[in-house]
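Aim 2 progress update. The chain analyzed this quarter is reproduced below.
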Amino acid sequence: MSDTRRRVKVYTLNEDRQWDDRGTGHVSSTYVERLKGMSLLVRAESDGSLLLESKINPNTAYQKQQDTLIVWSEAENYDLALSFQEKAGCDEIWEKICQVQGKDPSVEVTQDLIESEEEHIEEMPETSPLIDLPTCELNKLEEIADLVTSVLSSPIRREKLALALENEGYIKKLLQLFQVCENLENTEGLHHLYEIIRGILFLNKATLFEVMFSDECIMDVVGCLEYDPSLAQPKRHREFLTKTAKFKEVIPITDSELRQKIHQTYRVQYIQDIILPTPSVFEENFLSTLTSFIFFNKVEIVSMLQEDEKFLSEVFAQLTDEATDDDKRCELVNFFKEFCAFSQTLQPQNRDAFFKTLAKLGILPALEIVMGMDDLQVRSAATDIFSYLVEFSPSMVREFVMQEAQQSDDDILLINVVIEQMICDTDPELGGAVQLMGLLRTLIDPENMLATANKTEKSEFLNFFYNHCMHVLTAPLLANTAEDKCEKDAVVGSTKSNTICPDNYQTAQLLALILELLTFCVEHHTYHIKNYIMNKDLLRRVLVLMNSKHTFLALCALRFMRRIIGLKDEFYNRYITKGNLFEPVINALLDNGTRYNLLNSAVIELFEFIRVEDIKSLIAHIVENFYNALESIEYVQTFKGLKTKYEQEKDRQNQKLNSVPSILRSNRFRRDARALEEDEEMWFNEDEEEEGEAVVPPVEKSKQEDDFPDSYEKFMETKKAKESEDKENLPKRTSAGGFKFTFSHSASAANGANGANSKSVAAQTSPASSNGSSSKNATLTTAVTATKGSLVGLVDYPDDEDDDEEEEASPRKRPRLGS
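Predicted structure tokens:
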């Protein structure tokens, strides 16, 4: 049943105004992704091939005739009809069309039509009468103008007028009249001719454009369009096109057809962009054929140039030749820039061939030379060309730089040339640097990297980038946050340093761009960037910029840290707590005072994230080291919330610890089944002594732990007595030289407690440990390194997160809560 209901014949109206049968098939209405809308599809009943694919446009006038016919006009005035075998099928499709256009299916026409369009399909005579044009004379110009403007609202009458103009060679006659009017200075006639020519352009007919834009006619067409009745004085478009606009041939073009095509395209583009008014919403489609005319001209130009390999080879040779003078090179680069812009008109497969041709001819090595030149204009155009290449195929560019790396020094690698251009951008607003940063981001984005069966582009390219290019990218950042510079500029005892960070706005902007790229790396590059950050101690250097007078730069540094913490990676957390890297962030928060600004909100959001996500190691570190300085901040509950979480965790651990028999705790840390990456294990376990870190007393001493509740009060007294002594022994190291943490009482409380405790443990286990340093060393042999008392030296696996912090219920923690 459904087969016959949807069975249709497809008809199209030919140039002789007769209906051609295109075949019989079955119609359906469905959403077509390519056309971005509901469309009518007709598949042939013989072989299933597609007879029709037509998007149901909201503005197209559809007519329902005789209960089984639907007729409409497509773009290019291409008339179509569907003849249904059954009325029911016609009604179904008509409902779909009305639904898309928001019309009531009871109507027979979906849009308001001029009466001439309401001719029924079977009533159309075989030779549809053309519109009778008035004779082409001066006194008939007004009549012609009225006729041309009156047909614009009707697709069928537009079609008829176009045929009449074409058949009678009418346009050339009109342009002869234009010359007569101009010689006679007949202003009224010239105004009518403006309306006529503009109306003919709006007929949107390619065959008429071929006549109007031919060499013999185009200047007269431009002349007619100078006499806009709404202007007091005519424009001088012809003068501009003939005298001002200069055609430059970087290499002489021998093909006359190609040269003519280039001239024609430039002039037609000028008509569309400069002379004709910007079309209103209702006129958008009036000039669609004009846009297509320009589009296809550009395709032809690119194809003709591309096929002439001798021409392109000559351009490349001159571009890279050292003897070429600067002006010539600038013209060559601008030619390539326009050539690439034209290439955007090509179909995907043709564009593919175009860029492959350029790659084969050596566009990338040529760009490498040109981008390193002094001339700003040349560099800017070269950057535009590079952006076309990166946008087209990041993989092609990556492949080139990796091959190049095997033969060249790091300094002259294309990516390093790009990075250096970014760093050395002289524009105060860094316009070029921003563009280059975007291209770099595309190149290092794993999302567009290919993975093949035998190799992965991602691992190969990222290895290359971190080995050969990353040091160039981070050089300005490291240079501007160098420790010797920081220490020299720091003010002793101050939480602020004077000139650690560049006051120069341009440098600050550059560092912000670099940080944006590094933040992107943190999100997308996992272990490559992790190794780099830890090997270079990069986060510490970045956080020096929290001191910048440029708030946007401080926020960039904070965003970098926020992304790292957002990964919830315990290796990063350990690195942060081991290096005491919250200190500059908290300094910035306190220095910001009571100001309610973006910096304040961003810092609080960082701590709120840690609280909400319950990152235990960071919560413990923050509360133990910085809570005294932060507890006064009460306009948000974040810091109180951190303290609450910390205390809840401690209580939970203590309960758990007390419920475990001591015999089970004796070998707490011997977990041979653990598998860690060796390099990261070593990194986290080295240099404890240099860092001056606190240590956790060994949990094996179960006797002391069993006596813990009884010795608590004694311990408090010991702690207070020892506090001042231990304060003097604390390491004086600051996070980046310039930060002198002023609220040392909270840090010393924790360290003091730890110092007292570690000595008492040392006394029990090693009688030889009589002074503080030997005590520390003795303890180090059995204790696991902790970061300010919050992290153990092994990985916190989720399944024994609770166990990992059991030993931290040692006496040094409980006194801190009351200190």
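Residues 802 and 811 are 18 Å apart (CA to CA). Confidence is low (pLDDT under 50) at residues 114-128, 486-500, 668-680, 686-819. These observations will guide the mutagenesis experiments scheduled for the next reporting period.
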